[in-house]
Every structure is written in structure tokens, then in C-alpha cells.
Amino acid sequence: MAGDGTVRLRGHHLLCLLTYRGLGYSPAFVRGMTAIAARLAAGATAEIVEGADDICAPLCAEQQHPHCHEATVPERDRQALTLVAAALGRPLGTGDRLVLDENIRARLRAAYAAGAFAPACALCEWQPLCRDIAAGGYRETLFHAAAAVTSPR
Ligand code: SF4
User: Fold this and answer.
1) Phi, psi (5° rounding) for residue 99?
2) What is the DSSP string of 22-81?
3) What residues are in contact with ligand 1 under a 6 Å CB criterion?
4) Which of 80, 110, 116, 119 could lock onto 11 through a cystine, CB 3.0 to 4.6 A?
5) Tally of CB atoms within 10 A around 153
6) pLDDT given for residue 67 in this prediction
7) Is the C-alpha dihedral spanning 51, 145, 32, 39 positive or negative?
8) What is the distance between the alpha carbons of residues 36 and 46, in angstroms, rounded to a whole number?
9) Which of 102, 49, 34, 41 is nearest to 80 (CA)?
10) What is the end-to-end Cα distance of the chain in Å, rounded?
């Protein structure tokens, strides 16, 4: 986390946040990702970075899972950024900053459910679960639930 509260986020984690339901690689990872999802949903600025970010850097530190070092992951980041940029109709690359407000989250959820991000998720072990979560209306996802709390309708 940057000193100004900005959340450092790699490309494909923009997608993972959408379907995040509190499942992950380890209890420490889940605690960290849950906290970051809440911060972003509450309006914290995200800055796009290359490589390990505020979500997965703690996992690398645990050295229990080689996720960050898999050769496919940087390509997944690039694909995710390209597809998210297309879905949002704006350029998006390393160093860009954005607030993932409910309008953006809703547009990304709709695009994910429509399969727009499937190429970026193609080699991920979690894809069947994420696809089911999207098809089920994102029930019990924390990024979605946090939006409902911070933006009462
Ligand atoms: S399939 Fe993998 S990369 Fe895609 S959103 Fe789910 S966890 Fe993230």
C-alpha cells in the first residue's frame, strides 16, 4: 500500500476482485484481499502496477505458492488490462490510477458475466468457480456486498 492509501493493483486482479467470495490460497492471503476489497469499494484509489501488488505480495512473502512467478501471469495481466480498457472505453495501463466506484464495478461485472474477460482467465485454475459466481449474479461476493453497504439503494 502506498503512503497515500493508494492500492497497488496488477491487471488481472481487477477481475479477481469481481468474483472474490473470501476464498484464496491461505488465511493470510484471504485476510489481506478482503481488506483490500473493502478499501477499494470504499473509494480508495487503485494504481495499476506490473508484477506483485498489494494483494499477492504477501503471498509471495509466505513462499507457499509460486503463483506470482508463473510465466502465464504477466500475460494474464496484459490481457486483463486490454479487455478491461475495452469494457470501460478508456485506456488503462501501468501507472494509471482509478477509483473502482459502483458504476465501474457494475460495468465490469456485466462484462465478466458476458464472457468478455474469459481470454484473460483461460489458464486460471479458479475459472470454473469464477464463471459460476458471475452466472449466479455475484451472490456473496465481497466487492459486490461492500458496494451495497457503502451505496445504499
Ligand atoms: S478465473 Fe482466475 S484470473 Fe479470472 S477472475 Fe477468477 S481467479 Fe481471477
Assistant:
1) -105, 125
2) S--SSHHHHHHHHHHHHHHHTTPEEEEESSS-TTTHHHHHHTS--GGG-THHHHHHHHHH
3) 12, 15-16, 19, 121, 124, 126-127, 130
4) 80
5) 5
6) 65
7) positive
8) 10
9) 49
10) 30
Q: What is the pTM of this model?
A: 0.90
Query: Among candidates 19, 13, 8, which has minimal Cα distance to 142?
Result: 19
- Cα–Cα dist 146/38, whole Å: 6
- Percent of the chain exceeding pLDDT 90 equals 69
Residue 97 pairs in a beta bridge with 47
List CB contacts of 35: < 8 A, sequence separation 6 or more. none
Query: Measuring from atom 5 of ligand 1, which residue has the nearest CA?
Result: 16
Give the pLDDT mean for 136-146: 85
80 C-alpha to ligand 1 centroid (Å): 10
> CA–CA separation, 40 vs 46, rounded Å?
7
Q: What is the DSSP letter of 6?
A: P
